[in-house]
Amino acid sequence: xxxxxxxxxxxxxxxxxxxxxxxxxxxxxxxxxxxxxxxxxxxxxxxxxxxxxxxxxxxxxxxxxxxxxxxxxxxxxxxxxxxxxxxxxxxxxxxxxxxxxxxxxxxxxxxxxxxxxxxxxxxxxxxxxxxxxxxxxxxxxxxxxxxxxxxxxxxxxxxxxxxxxxxxxxxxxxxxxxxxxxxxxxxxxxxxxxxxxxxxxxxxxxxxxxxxxxxxxxxxxxxxxxxxxxxxxxxxxxxxxxxxxxxxxxxxxxxxxxxxxxxxxxxxxxxxxxxxxxxxxxxxxxxxxxxxxxxxxxxxxxxxxxxxxxxxxxxxxxxxxxxxxxxxxxxxxxxxxxxxxxxxxxxxx
Length: 349
Description:
- Helices cover about 20% and strands about 30% of the residues.
- The chain is globular, with a radius of gyration of 21 Å.
- By secondary structure, it is α/β, with parallel strands linked by helices.
- It has 2 domains: about 5-65 and about 170-349, QueA-like (3-Layer(aba) Sandwich), CATH 3.40.1780.10; about 65-150, QueA-like (Thrombin, subunit H), CATH 2.40.10.240.
- The strands form 3 sheets. It has a 9-stranded mixed sheet, with helices on one face. Strands 5-6-7-10-9-8 form a 6-stranded antiparallel barrel. The protein has a two-stranded parallel ribbon with strand order 4-11.
């Protein structure tokens, strides 16, 4: 499967810059992958496609305010610092991306906030843009973390081309976000409101949660034509026993298991037994799913409409069938569906 097969012309005005007014009132395209039939609905209508003892699996990761703006010592040049992950709690070490990277060398100090509230020292180069920073802060850890996060802003993807607004802190997060560690939101989960969850629960739908701390690799360009040569960035995942029991029981009883988003799909497919059942796991995954691929755990998937050439779109094509999904994307453009993080959703049955 070649990269160029996932190119299509997306009008810029269809990239959603803001979320729908109500979470569960985005548009929903329903694809029946066996027949190719397509329906146009509203997201909260999703309840009609699920029954008692079906299982929806959500990613309960929580996004933290990962984008900071600081100034370089001496020159005062503005530097954007994107926090990727905490490396060492005691030493205040963080893995970050810096922009512009060419100006930042080992030994440089960066200053953040009014009156230089936080100071960081560059101690290592990890990649062309990546650096390791040590934050110089003497107070207790909780106080340091609070200060760091007060300086950060919601890390909207760059293709949402506008300033961050107060509502983003809440809306660029699912309602079931619990475990902090993501620098990008699991977007399919953002369509679920508390009211919709309650209605699904009353109908008898069961919920399971897994964790995948979404990294920036989701937005990294694929720069090889031969997809077998693309390497995904590793992301931390946790699948606990409760989730395993719920999913495997549903599979044994021939109930539906729905992966809510590409991050959930990648998590579930990263820990499968030889019998095609889910296994508990805590560790890292760099699984890259593109057509053709045989799925083992979920038989349904909810996902957004993704940008051209993205690994997220490739996974949707692997699950729904390449021709089916490409046809749906053309319909979505024609019908002016909204694309990207804050865009509309697709249910693949």
